[in-house]
């Protein structure tokens, strides 16, 4: 028997018991906070998971199953032209993503299919920055010119980030002349 492990389990049991024992259930402010927490959890389960995450996992699965590795390598691979590869990744990131948490399964999907890390990073950055919903919202609130400017700026910025990533990763891999 591991005494340290058993004492740790006992400690956490006492902490949970004390938290439940001293819970201020009669306090209106506490109950309002609990209600708000449960309402938010319900909204997240109904709206965000059903409308954003499940379709994203479906799209990532479709990419993994139906998009050939050759086509991913042709446009997003190491031998593709960097500016074309990064621009295509940034534009497709803006079309496919809805929010920052839905871009991760898509990023993983294209990266595992053979896309270069710089290309996948351009895709990863551009998704939340210029999703279709954010473009529409920006255009509605600030005007069409600002919506277009945000889109062009975010695509350009994600391409620059990817190019810098490529530049620094290639530079890091090259052996130093002093170390030869």
Automatic annotation (TrEMBL):
One of its GO terms (cellular component) is plasma membrane. Keywords: Cell membrane, Membrane, Transmembrane, Transmembrane helix. It is found in: Cell membrane. The keyword Ion transport does not apply. It is a multi-pass membrane protein. InterPro entries: DUF318 (IPR005524). PANTHER family: UPF0718 PROTEIN YRAQ. This is Permease. Its main location: membrane. Belongs to the UPF0718 family. The chain crosses the membrane at residues 6-27, 48-71, 83-107, 119-142, 148-168.
């Amino acid at each position: 028997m591991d005494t340290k492990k058993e004492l740790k389990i006992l400690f956490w049991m006492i902490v949970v018991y004390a938290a439940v024992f001293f819970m201020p259930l009669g306090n209106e402010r506490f109950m309002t906070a609990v209600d708000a927490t449960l309402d938010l959890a319900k909204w997240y389960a109904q709206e965000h998971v059903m409308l954003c995450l499940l379709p994203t996992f479906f799209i990532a699965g479709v990419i993994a199953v139906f998009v050939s590795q050759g086509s991913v390598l042709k446009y997003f691979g190491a031998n593709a032209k960097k500016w074309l590869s990064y621009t295509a990744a940034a534009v497709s990131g803006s079309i496919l993503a809805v929010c920052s948490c839905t871009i991760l399964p898509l990023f993983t999907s294209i990266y595992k299919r053979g896309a270069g890390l710089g290309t996948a990073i351009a895709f990863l950055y551009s998704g939340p920055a210029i999703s279709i919903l954010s473009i529409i919202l920006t255009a509605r609130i600030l005007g069409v010119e600002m919506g277009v400017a945000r889109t062009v700026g975010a695509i350009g910025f994600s391409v620059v980030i990817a190019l810098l990533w490529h530049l620094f990763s290639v530079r890091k891999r090259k052996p130093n002349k002093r170390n030869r």
